[in-house]
Design brief:
The complex is a heterodimer. By secondary structure, chain A is an alpha+beta fold. Chain A has 14 helices and 14 strands. In chain A, strands 1, 2, 3, 4, 5, 6, 7, 8, 9, 10, 11, 12, 13 and 14 form a 14-stranded mixed beta sheet that branches. In chain A, α10 runs antiparallel to α11, α11 packs antiparallel against α12 and α12 runs antiparallel to α13. The C terminus of chain A is likely disordered. The chains are: A alpha+beta, B mainly alpha.
Chain lengths: ~450, ~230
């Protein structure tokens, strides 16, 4: 333990570095808002309405400031290199060691990884644009398109790979000249010498290979290719079981990465693209139906297409599997109303199926994460727990209900959920949340 | 005949009034509180004005206490980029709760406690959302307005505070960064002086343990005594 004087001098220095907060202009703005807030709270029941007005003002001022800042100066996107606490700097070259890859984690959840012996740097990182330059070697990127608002590009020599919400890898070597781009999820656009002026768009499972001698090949790998281990075998029952397992996994973790660790194929053993494969974009078939967009993982467009063909009707006519996909598309696209509509329809029309039970859990997630309705989320998580108390999502539902009930102001339910969680899952994923709830619950602001 | 009673440490209720360290209360023979020196008469006017929702009173209140509120929020959250929203939340809370302030003389300690409670709620909420993976990265660190080149020490300290318990973080910040006395920390947390001392020792242990891994901070942490 250090002496109190050391802490005091440390604290003084930190206080000096921090300063006294915002300047007079921002303060004056708040003063004006407070004055208006005071007038607005007049002649109203004292508590609830004044709070609502204050919240609206806070949102208005915050929103206006945010929009202004976004337009004027795009906010920097923070990223960390290697260990979690080392913040990266724009423009600084990064070199992965010969033994281990070097991860770079961005605040929006996107992750890139420089493979061993590779060199690269983050050239620009802000809310509008993130640009990464690959000097040499291999880079793997997993763009979190649910969170990011930036346009992502990877520059490799004279080539530019533009990510359209996706997971992909780029291998670049100047000597001998070679470029390989593999797309595991979503789509990317590649521009540069040897390609058409508009560039080449690649979909999930496609591999673009460029060599010095001018050879350019686009091949398919992973899902759908011959020998793909993901192809279901064993008849409808096994397929149904696989579907359920996948649904639970996705409900828990999020959208499925197509091929997390695809086989590293060579030009010789890669299979050609299947005849008639639907690849939308510069040179392919243009998708129209929501299912085609869904297959291409273009979820926002899938929901838009579903809306055009009549979402209500689809919810009443699709079979269980399709309705599930529609709900998934809406969730991934961040469309809370549509997701809720599809999931409620699933629960009503297929009430005895496993999908109806998991839909309760997903309704909780949609309510909390997309719609911000913590009260509904708390209720849905408890409905799931009532319907499937020993289910594979029970821990997840109980853990998430702690935060949802707490945020909804349902303090006793949150405390009870935390207590139950700690009893049942002392080493679980949400133990920290449960302990936080238990330890600070009594000290909550009065 | 009037006499004066002072409290040397801690806080609590004395003669029906909330009473904290350093405060001298003037009472009559029947122990009725006559005056709380140190408070200004205009504070009562401010409080009644706020209770009437008078915008002029609101502005006067803001002018008088803005440094206190801004400073407290700024340092408790660590130069957060949502600072302005947070201050507005505190002010909204002031309006929502001012009718319940029974003794206008206690406006300042009441305000400190209200500010700390509002910030505590925000930290808990952010932390819960981070645990539930609703917020990417580490929002309590990543979203501040600090500049690494000029405020390296502050960044490191807040990264460590972020790894500590919410209550530990608050009491540590109030005592060492904000520079408040233990008695004021007790008022801000609404607990006894002994409880604050216990909490502070726990917070120091937690901070020290985490700071050991940081070469820069470790150099500040040399020495050995307890408060």
């Amino acid at each position: 333990m250090s002496s109190a004087r050391n802490y005091e001098s440390l604290g003084r220095e930190v206080k000096r570095q921090l300063g006294d907060g915002p300047g007079p202009q921002r303060r004056e703005h708040i003063k004006k808002a407070f004055s208006e807030m005071t007038v607005a709270s007049r002649h109203r029941p004292p508590r609830r309405r004044s709070l609502a007005m204050a919240a609206a003002l806070v949102l208005l001022v915050g929103g206006a400031t945010f929009v202004l800042m976004e337009v004027m100066v795009p906010r920097a996107v923070v990223f960390w290199v290697g260990s979690e606490t080392v913040q990266g700097e724009e423009g600084a070259w990064l070199q992965a060691s010969a033994e281990e890859p070097l991860p770079v984690r961005f605040e929006d959840g996107t992750r890139i990884e420089l493979r061993p012996n590779s060199t690269g740097r983050v050239v620009t990182a802000n809310r509008k644009k993130v640009s990464v330059e690959l000097g040499r070697g291999k880079l793997r990127a997993d763009i979190n398109r649910h969170q990011t608002r930036s346009t992502w590009t990877v520059e490799a020599g004279p080539y530019r790979v533009t990510a359209l919400g996706t997971e992909f890898s780029v291998v670049w070597n100047a000597e001998p000249f070679s470029l390989d781009v593999r797309v595991f999820r979503g789509r990317v656009g590649v521009r540069g010498p040897g390609l058409r002026p508009k560039g080449r768009e690649l979909g999930a499972g496609e591999h673009l290979s460029l060599r010095k001698e001018g050879t350019k090949t686009v091949t398919r790998f992973g899902k759908g290719a011959p020998g793909d281990p993901d192809v279901a075998e064993g008849g409808p029952a096994a397929l149904e079981s696989q579907e359920r397992d996948e649904a639970i996994r996705v409900a828990k973790l999020g959208p499925p990465p197509d091929v997390m660790h695809p086989p590293q194929t060579t030009a010789r053993d890669e299979a050609p693209a299947p005849r008639g494969a639907k690849v939308a974009g510069l040179d392919g078939h243009q998708p129209e139906s929501w299912q085609e967009f869904y297959d291409l993982r273009r979820y926002a467009e899938a929901i838009e297409a579903a809306g055009k063909s009549g979402l209500e009707e689809l919810c009443e006519t699709l079979d269980g599997r399709e309705l599930w996909q529609l709900a998934d598309a809406a969730r991934y696209a961040g469309k809370g109303v549509e997701a809720k509509r599809a999931l409620l329809s699933l629960r009503r029309r297929f009430r005895d199926s496993w999908r109806a039970v998991i839909a309760a859990f997903l309704l909780g997630r949609v309510a909390f994460e997309i719609q911000g309705d913590a009260r509904a989320a708390c209720n849905w998580f408890h409905i799931y727990l009532r319907e499937d108390p020993g289910g594979r999502l029970a821990e997840e539902a109980l853990g998430r209900s702690i935060g949802a009930c707490d945020e909804a102001g349902m303090r006793s339910r949150a405390m009870q959920a935390a207590k139950d969680y700690l009893e049942k899952y002392p080493q679980g994923t949400f133990t920290e949340a449960a302990e936080l709830m238990s330890s600070t619950g009594g000290d909550a602001p009065k | 005949m009037a006499r004066k009673v002072s409290r040397l440490g801690g806080c609590g209720y004395l003669f029906g009034k909330e009473h904290f360290a350093g405060m001298t209360v003037e009472v009559d023979n029947s122990l009725k509180v006559l005056h709380l020196p140190g408070q200004h008469p205009e504070v009562r006017t401010l409080v009644s004005g706020l209770q009437r929702r008078d915008p002029k009173a609101a502005e006067a209140f803001y002018d008088r206490y803005q440094d206190r509120i801004h400073g407290l929020v700024w340092r408790l959250l660590g130069a957060d980029d949502e600072h302005d929203d947070m201050v507005q939340q505190v002010l909204a809370q002031v309006l929502a709760s001012i009718d319940g302030l029974r003794d206008p003389d206690l406006l300042e300690p009441w305000l400190i406690r209200l500010t700390v409670n509002t910030v505590r709620k925000e930290i808990r909420k952010r932390r819960m959302r981070r645990i539930l993976h609703l917020t990417p990265g580490n929002p309590e660190v990543a979203s501040n307005e600090l500049r690494p080149e000029r405020q390296q020490l502050a960044i490191r300290v807040y990264e460590i505070l972020d790894g500590m318990g919410v209550e530990d973080r608050i009491v540590f910040t109030l005592r060492y960064i904000e520079g408040h006395s233990l008695a004021t920390c007790a008022i801000a947390r609404g607990c006894s002086l002994a409880a604050v001392k216990r909490r502070l020792n726990k917070a120091k242990r937690a901070f020290s343990k985490l700071a050991e891994k940081d070469l820069v901070l470790a150099s500040w942490m040399e020495g050995e005594t307890d408060e």
